[in-house]
Amino acid sequence: MDQYKCTKCGYIYIPENGDPRQGISANTTFEDLPDTWVCPRCRVGKRFFVKIP
Known about the structure:
Strand order of the largest sheet: 2-1-3
Shape: globular
Radius of gyration: 10 Å
Distance between the termini: 10 Å
Number of helices: 0
CATH architecture: Single Sheet
Largest sheet: 3 strands, antiparallel
Mean pLDDT: 97
Helix content: under 10%
Low-confidence stretches: none
């Protein structure tokens, strides 16, 4: 699964981990995150994330 990095703070969303604090289960792809999801570190929206190799 692809990982995505926040361009504001550097947080990396790792699908295998999900985001339990926001109710996101493990193995949830970035594309499947709800539009209301925000970076757990700096609280910006998904549009500030870029796919990393």
